[in-house]
Amino acid sequence: MSEQTINKSKIIFFSIFVASVLVFSHNLYMHPVNEDNLAKDDQLVAVDKLLNGLHKDAHEGNFQAYFSRYSRDAIFLGTDKSERWTIEEFKNYAKPAFEDGHGWTYQVVERNWEGGGDTRWFDEILFNDKLGYCRGTGVVNFVNNEWKISHYALTMLVPNSIAEEIGSRTKEVDNK
C-alpha cells in the first residue's frame, strides 16, 4: 500500500469519527422537550417554594406572610392530640409566638411530593432544636392561580427503641 493511500484512509477514518462524534453529541443535547414534564417540574418548584417560604416565614416571625400561604379553609394538626385547628384558630394559637418576631424554626431535612394536577400532597422530615426530628405532612391545592396549603399535620418522630416508654408516658399524662 502506498503512503498516499494510507493517508487517504486515515483522513476518511478521522472524518467518519468526527462526524459520528458530532452527530452523537448533537443528539445528547438536542433531545425533544416533553412539555408535560417541563410543566410538572415548574409546578414542583412552585410548591417547594411555597413550603420553603412557610418555614422561612415561621423562623423570621412573619405572621402575615406565613398565614397567607394557607387556604381560607385550611386545617392544621399540631403535635398534641387536642391541636386540630381551623386556620383562624391556628392564627390565635400562633400569634403570641410571632409577636416577638421569632415564630418557630424547623429545618427541612427531606421532602417528598406526590399527586398531580391541582392537588399535591407531601411529607417532609424536619428538625427542631426542642422537639428533635418531626414529620410534616399535608396537602396543597392550586387555588386562584397560586398554590395554597389546605392541610398540614406536624408529628414528632419517635425512635422505635423508646416508643413504648413514650407511649407509657403519654398515657400517664392523659390520665391526669
Descriptive account of the structure:
The chain has 176 residues and is of the alpha+beta class. The chain folds into two domains: 1-31; 35-174, Nuclear Transport Factor 2, Chain: A (Roll), CATH 3.10.450. The protein is built from five helices and six strands. It has helices spanning 3-29, 35-60, 63-67, 87-99, 160-174, and strands at 70-77, 84-86, 107-116, 119-128, 132-143, 146-156. A six-stranded mixed β-sheet has the order 2-1-6-5-4-3. Strand 5 and strand 6 form a beta hairpin. The protein is globular, with a radius of gyration of 27 Å. The termini are far apart. The model is unreliable at 12-38 (pLDDT under 50).
Which quaternary structure do these chains form? single chain
CATH topology of the largest domain: Nuclear Transport Factor 2, Chain: A
Counted up, domains total: 2
Q: Spell out the helices and strands N to C.
A: HHHEEHEEEEH
Q: List the uncertain runs.
A: 12-38
Strand content: 25-35%
Q: Helix count?
A: 5
CATH level-two architecture of the largest domain: Roll
CATH class category name of the largest domain: Alpha Beta
Shape assignment:
globular
Please list the strands of the largest sheet in the order they lie side by side. Answer: 2-1-6-5-4-3
Q: Give the tally of β-strands.
A: 6
Radius of gyration: 27 Å
Percent helix: 40-55%
Structural class: alpha+beta
Q: How widely separated are the two ends?
A: 102 Å
Mean pLDDT: 84
Major sheet, described briefly? Answer: 6 strands, mixed
